[in-house]
Structure formats: C-alpha cells, structure tokens
Amino acid sequence: MKQEILTITENEPVTKTVYRMTLTGEGLEAQKPGGFVNLRLKGLFLRRPISVYDSEPGRLTILYKTVGKGTEQMAGMRPGERLDALTGLGNGYDLSKAGEAPLLLGGGVGVPPLYLAAKKLAAQGKKVQAVLGFNTAEEVFGEEAFRALGCGVTVATADGSRGVKGFVTDAMPAEYSYIYTCGPEPMLRAIYRAAKTSGQFSFEERMGCGFGACMGCSCKTITGYKRICREGPVLEKEEILWDD
Ligand SMILES: Cc1cc2nc3c(=O)[nH]c(=O)nc-3n(C[C@H](O)[C@H](O)[C@H](O)COP(=O)(O)OP(=O)(O)OC[C@H]3O[C@@H](n4cnc5c(N)ncnc54)[C@H](O)[C@@H]3O)c2cc1C
Ligand code: FES
C-alpha cells in the first residue's frame, strides 16, 4: 500500500451515472487487476474504495457510479485537481489459473475490475469471453472497450432492453475454462451455483472502514473469516461459505 497525491487528467461521464476518471502520478506503479484504491474526499471521514479499471506505470483509470456524497463529489472534480489515494490495495485476481477460455462475469459497477484482467488475459492469447450485466439499456457501459481487446462480449439486461433478457447467469456460454467475477452478492451467489468450473469472486459490496478495523466486511470461508478490505476483495470459489 502506498499513499500518493494523484492529478486528475480526465473525468467524463460514460452513462448518466457512471464516470471514467484518469489519474496520473510520477511514482504511481502499475496496479493489479482486481485491486483497488481508497480515495480521500473533502469532509468525509472514511475513504471511498474504487476498483482499478486500467493501469500502467504513472497512470490509473477508474470507473465509478454516483451513489452518494463521495462519488458525487468526485463527479464534480475537474482535470488538474488532485486526489489523495491509497494505491496497491487488494489481493486481485490470480490470472495464472485462467486456462485457455476464461469467462468474465460483471454486474453493474462489478464490470470495471474485470477490464484489466481481460486486457492481460487477451495479451496472453487467451480466448476471453465477457458477460456484462445491467438493469437496463441506459446503464450499459464497457461493451466496446472489452470488444476492442478482442473479447467475445454478451450484454444482459434485467428488463431485456438490451442484449439477453435476464441476469448474467442467463447469458453464460456453454464452454469456458475458469470464471472471474465481480458484482452484487445475489449475482455472485447465482454464479457460484451455476458455475461448471472453479473461479475467483470479488466481493466489492462488503466494506465499512476499509482499513481492517471494523470487521464489517468479513466473509465466512473454509479457513475462518476473511476481511474483504484486507484479505480480499477476491476469494477463491472453493473457500467461500455463504451466510444463510
Ligand atoms: C473493493 C471495492 C471496490 C469498489 N469498486 C467500485 C468501482 O470500481 N466503481 C464503483 O462505482 N463503485 C465501486 N465500489 C463501491 C464504492 O466504494 C461505493 O459506491 C462508494 O464508496 C460510495 O460512496 P458515496 O460516498 O458516494 O456513497 P455513500 O454516501 O457512502 O452511500 C450511498 C449509498 O451507496 C451504498 N453503498 C456504499 N458503499 C457501497 C458498496 N461498496 N457497494 C454497494 N453500495 C454501496 C450505501 O449503502 C448507500 O445506500 C467498490 C467498493 C469496494 C469495497
Ligand atoms: S471494512 Fe472494516 S475491517 Fe474491512
């Protein structure tokens, strides 16, 4: 983990409520796929965790949805403004387990952390398939970006206004070698039940203090409780024990 002051170079809406922000910093290292940063915002005690969307040395891109005080403050920020960020957080996805045809399943703001994984897997020559799930057509983002990497992309919307009608589990292909996923917990549970292979699940929804003190993010695993902010956010399918 590293604390750095980063400079905003881009902050543009990609849908009505989701923004893409690019930040630069001299000492900023390349971040892990599935990792996250924790941003300090004016007047807010707790930092806000946001996944790494894309990253290379000196540059970081995030995609965030405006849901409350912190993300609304972010949406009002302009290029040239600075943000205090804790970087290098999270265990991230282990891409060595992908096999030849990994399946990436993202729901809503669970889509962003899969992009860098897709980019790296595509660069390794893997046949990457992505299923991106949203409530409705106007919320859809990321489709073109994943396609530009050479991934097969299927969009699913709960109301059927775009792509397959239903959830990401309704649009899963028949064949795949491994699963990487991130999204709301009901979606993760459904994927867990539907999965034909092993996989890695990112639990973004569970977070309180963000620095290991409150236990509010704890998930039950076969080796005891794990704090999503410290030992996660990614858990292996085989270690997850769901709360009833
Ligand atoms: C590891 C991790 C990675 C994340 N990555 C992303 C990302 O890439 N893009 C993105 O848009 N969001 C992401 N989130 C969610 C993001 O952190 C929250 O949306 C944000 O902290 C809300 O802050 P706020 O001040 O705007 O809202 P608040 O005023 O704090 O809350 C407003 C509403 O949002 C809900 N909320 C708060 N946190 C979460 C959460 N973690 N999940 C779902 N609902 C929440 C609250 O219950 C409340 O109803 C991630 C969360 C975690 C834990
Ligand atoms: S969010 Fe408080 S311990 Fe993880």
Report helical residue fraction.
10-25%
Number of strands: 16
Strand content: 35-45%
Runs with pLDDT <50, length 5+?
none
**3D shape:** globular
User: Averaged pLDDT, please?
Assistant: 96
| Ligand species | flavin-adenine dinucleotide, FE2/S2 (inorganic) cluster
What is the distance, rounded to the nearest whole angstrom, between the alpha carbons of the first and last residues? Answer: 34 Å
Count the helices. How many?
5
What is the CA-based Rg, rounded? 17 Å
Explain this structure:
With 244 residues, this protein is an alpha/beta fold. The chain has five helices and 16 strands. The protein has helices spanning 69-75, 112-123, 143-148, 185-194, 228-231; strands at residues 2-13, 18-24, 36-40, 48-51, 54-56, 59-65, 82-89, 102-107, 129-134, 152-157, 164-165, 178-182, 199-202, 218-221, 224-227, 234-236. The chain is globular, with a radius of gyration of 17 Å. The chain starts with a strand and ends in an 8-residue tail after the last strand. The protein binds flavin-adenine dinucleotide and FE2/S2 (inorganic) cluster (FES).
